Amino acid sequence: QIKREKTENIPDLKYLVKEKFTALESKNSDSDLQRNEKYIYFKDQLKEMRKQCNENETIEQIDEDIAVTQSQMNFICPITQVEMKRPVRNKICGHTYEEDAILKIIQTRKQQKKKVRCPKIGCSHADVKGSDLVPDEALKRAIDSQNKQ
C-alpha cells in the first residue's frame, strides 16, 4: 500500500501498527496465555530461579550469622568430644555431629535392632536415622575458617 501511494499521502505508520497490534491483542485471552507452551516453560524457569536465589540468600545469611556468632559456636561433636571435621546436621532436631561417629552409632544400634537417641544432652529426639542427616556445609566452612585463623 505504501509503495503505491505518493510520498505526501503516506499514512501514519505508527498509528497503523498500533491499530493492528490492538486488534490482535484483543483476540488474546488469559486462558490462551496459561496454555502457551513457551509461557509455561518461562514460568517454570522463573520458579526454579527464585528457589535457587532463596537458597543462595539462605546460605549467605547463614554465613553472616556464623561470622557474627563464630566465637560463641561450639565445634565439638557431642559424641566424640573432639572438633568436628565432617559435620552433619540432623534435619529433625537440628543438632550436629561428626559424620563417622553418628553413622557408627546408627549402624551398631541397627544390628541390635534398637533406635538411636540424639546424643545431644537434653534432646528428646529418639529415632535418629541416616536418612535424616545432611552435610552441614556452613558449619564446616566456619570450622575451616576458624582453623585458618
UniProtKB/TrEMBL annotation:
<dbReference type="GO" id="GO:0016925">
    <property type="term" value="P:protein sumoylation"/>
</dbReference>
<keyword id="KW-0863">Zinc-finger</keyword>
<keyword id="KW-0436">Ligase</keyword>
<dbReference type="InterPro" id="IPR004181">
    <property type="entry name" value="Znf_MIZ"/>
</dbReference>
<protein>
    <recommendedName>
        <fullName>E3 SUMO-protein ligase NSE2</fullName>
    </recommendedName>
</protein>
<dbReference type="GO" id="GO:0008270">
    <property type="term" value="F:zinc ion binding"/>
</dbReference>
<keyword id="KW-0833">Ubl conjugation pathway</keyword>
<comment type="pathway">
    <text>Protein modification; protein sumoylation.</text>
</comment>
<dbReference type="GO" id="GO:0061665">
    <property type="term" value="F:SUMO ligase activity"/>
</dbReference>
<dbReference type="Pfam" id="PF11789">
    <property type="entry name" value="zf-Nse"/>
</dbReference>
<keyword id="KW-0539">Nucleus</keyword>
<dbReference type="InterPro" id="IPR013083">
    <property type="entry name" value="Znf_RING/FYVE/PHD"/>
</dbReference>
<keyword id="KW-0808">Transferase</keyword>
<feature type="domain" description="SP-RING-type">
    <location>
        <begin position="62"/>
        <end position="148"/>
    </location>
</feature>
<keyword id="KW-0862">Zinc</keyword>
<keyword id="KW-0479">Metal-binding</keyword>
<dbReference type="GO" id="GO:0030915">
    <property type="term" value="C:Smc5-Smc6 complex"/>
</dbReference>
<dbReference type="GO" id="GO:0016874">
    <property type="term" value="F:ligase activity"/>
</dbReference>
<comment type="similarity">
    <text>Belongs to the NSE2 family.</text>
</comment>
<dbReference type="InterPro" id="IPR026846">
    <property type="entry name" value="Nse2(Mms21)"/>
</dbReference>
<dbReference type="GO" id="GO:0005634">
    <property type="term" value="C:nucleus"/>
</dbReference>
<dbReference type="GO" id="GO:0000724">
    <property type="term" value="P:double-strand break repair via homologous recombination"/>
</dbReference>
